[in-house]
Amino acid sequence: MYKISPSILSADFSDLKSEINKIVEGGADYIHLDVMDGLFVPNITFGAPVIKNLRKITNKPFDVHLMIERPERYIDDFVDAGADIITVHQESSVHLHRTIQQIKNHGIKAGVSLNPATPIETIEYVLENLDMVLIMTVNPGFGGQSLIKEMKEKVMKLRSIIEEKNLDIDIQVDGGVKLDNIEEIKSWGANIFVVGSGIFKAKDIKSETQKYKEILF
Question: HAMAP family per the record (predicted)?
Answer without folding.
Answer: RPE
